[in-house]
Amino acid sequence: MKIHHVGYLAKSIDKTEKKFFELGYEVEQATKYDEIRDIKIEFLKNGDYRVELIEPMGENSPMYPLLKRFKNTPYHFCYEVEDMDKAVKELESKHYTVIHEPTIAPCIDGKKVAFLNNISMGIIELVEF
């Protein structure tokens, strides 16, 4: 599987992006609001590396508890897959647990995404291309 991006929790996208700019990143996709997850998302790129900045908009966001616990931090890798159902089943057979069923991601051009967790790996995201 090819890495699509690294998900990075941010208390404030505006403040965090400035630090990424200092490291040579540029905006690939301006900030958008994801009403499904109650978060703002912005994609930054530096060469072949893409970072997704994620800012929970309030305590009702499923990302808020992670931000509260870990503060600003990378927290998942996202991998591109051709067939979401097949990829999920394969990972479940390798002891990954689905923590967010496949659903549309408004900020990734409406692509289907799913989140899984493995005790030895942590959280990963799949995006169907």
TrEMBL record:
It comes from the Bacteria. The keyword RNA-binding does not apply. Keywords: Metal-binding. GO terms for biological process: L-methylmalonyl-CoA metabolic process. It holds the Pfam family Glyoxalase_4. Residues 2-129 form the VOC domain. PROSITE patterns: VOC. GO terms for molecular function: metal ion binding; methylmalonyl-CoA epimerase activity. The keyword Metal-binding applies. PANTHER family: METHYLMALONYL-COA EPIMERASE, METHYLMALONYL-COA EPIMERASE, MITOCHONDRIAL. This is Methylmalonyl-CoA/ethylmalonyl-CoA epimerase.
